[in-house]
Amino acid sequence: MGKSRKLSFYFHIPFCLSKCYYCDFNSYAGLNWLIPQYVDTLEKEMQLHAKDVWEFEVKTIYFGGGTPSLLPAKSIAYMLESCSKLFNMPSNLEVTLEANPGTVDQSFLTQLKESGVNRLSLGVQSFSDNELKLLGRIHSANEAREAFFMARQAGFENINMDLLYALPQQAVSDWRNNLVEAIKLNPDHFSLYPLTLEPSTPLANAVASGSLPKPDADLAADMYLLALDKLAQEGYSHYEISNWALPGKECQHNMTYWKNEPYLGLGAGAHSHLGGYRWVNVSSPVEYVKHLASLKTKLSPRPYFNNRWVDNIENIDRDLEIAEAVILSLRLEEGVNLTDFAHRFGVELYSIYQQQQINELVELGLIAKNQHSIRLTTKGKLLGNEVFSRFLPKSRG
Description:
alpha/beta
């Protein structure tokens, strides 16, 4: 037998105490009454997939949201226990839960660690109370620090910290202060994202009305370069465009996405990529629960076909799979490994993308290449979308 096939699991927990001003994720405030039913429905969806994916070994589990830390710790433990019964799940896999610092206490974090969660992702976003207020976050800077200390006390040895930069009215010195405060805590991993103004969010509306200034792309680039410099000095490896880790603490779950490997998403609005298909569940948590509750029999194989809780199914053809594999790999510091590419697709990269096309990006200073790989330069990371668009199939470019 060859190497076992691996599959990552993503559980979408769409509940929030309040909606942040920049957020357009599939999340909802005021639906917490649905949580017990929702957890039961997640278990039902797991059962529907169990037979179809038993051949896979579970590689990672990730609870994202929304605010997964709104779930009782016993509900997380229940879901992980169900996973271990239903799927081929080793004992030492990475299990991540996203947490809002304003929703955790010592008891919850201790129970969470005991349940089998071994990686925590704290949505800190900023260490400035004024910036947190601008973003509509429910926690203060001190609460973020306290949440981090409590997580360490609970035994978490792998903690990620999310921070946002390029906020309206944020100066480079403000961003430097955030980095300094974050580095003092010595988290194991950083995810740093420029603020994106999503249509119809309160923050986007405020910018559109002129009450807040538009984002400055040059300022955002300066902040990114500052992060590159400071985190390198502190021993963090910049292994993906937006992610830095101490040695051995890279996020294995996100590596599944960047290496274009299979994953199964469960819950309202969760995305999956498996068996040559990509699909997304219906986004409304109420509709998701209702559709699965009305199901009388177990479906197998491929329960995602022709079911009311699945919103959209896309067949991923070979051209698109190749393009996505290249684009996602370019996000990684290691870039596209030419040998791995040829092994996976049975063709050389340069037989699909002409040398001239690659050389043009090299001449523009966006890509570096050698006999083993192609990868983004620092300039290429700042202009990633410009590079990625060159690798799309002609029908989609």
